[in-house]
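Structural prep section.
Before we set up the soaks we want a predicted structure of the protein with manganese (II) ion in place, mainly to decide which crystallisation condition to try first. Input record follows.
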Amino acid sequence: MRPCVTISLVPEARGGPFVFWDDLDEALREARECGFPAVELFAPDASPLQQADLKSKLRDHDLELAAVGTGAGWVRHGWTLSSPEDSVRIQGSDFVKSLIEAAAPFGAAVIIGSMQGKSPSPGERADALGRLRDSVAPLAEMAEKSGVSLLIEPLNRYETNLLNTLAQGVVFVDSLKPSKLRLLADLFHMNIEETDCAAAFRAAGDAVGHVHFVDSNRRAAGFGHLKFPPVVEALREIGYDGYLSAEAIPLPSPREAASQTMRAFQQYVEQPSA
Ligand code: LER
Ligand code: MN
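Run finished without errors. Recording the tokens verbatim:
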């Protein structure tokens, strides 16, 4: 497992759970200074990934691009992949496609979180899930052809009524087999929705492809009341060897949230018995 830290370049997402903000160069420098080997980018669109110098900037800071979020399609344009409106779903799918294409040269994963949307009413959930599946199937196929890992993220009940738990995520992922769609397990959402986070990881097994490493209150790991040792033990048991990415509120400051994440990573992952 490797630590990772989030950077948002989306002004409309201000107040959201991202550690570093706005200034990519400064964020890369600070991420490296704190000891992170990788960053996760929340981008307004594909343009920051298409900048000719992003690869060299990452190389200069010895950083990998672990993953790219697609939530700006929702935050900035109101697009989702489950909307009853064809034109909204098509624009949402085109937006995710553009990010898959842009992420491919970096070997970065692409995340579908809030772009899953919600069902207009509980009675329409099955139809909304069907539309989500129909939208994600070609995206998963495209991702696979591009060598990109596509991730779908269960969210808590205040953000969606489609996929809330890892178990629901596994059913969704299994329904799209043989595609290699996998789950993004966000500990903040899991703390609200799961009965037992460690058990949920054990049950999801190799469907877990990425983890948002964050505490119960969405602050950096260790700044809330989540019990990390059983979670890390379960991740080890299922053989998870991906990123633990800090998608956390930048309190008391971005730098402190980043440093605290590294301290928690050392405490719970690197030296759990110390
Ligand atoms: C995105 O990763 C996420 O967790 C959602 O809550 C959207 O903010
Ligand atoms: Mn998340």
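Observations: The domain at 2-270 is CATH 3.20.20.150 (TIM Barrel).
Flagged for discussion at group meeting.
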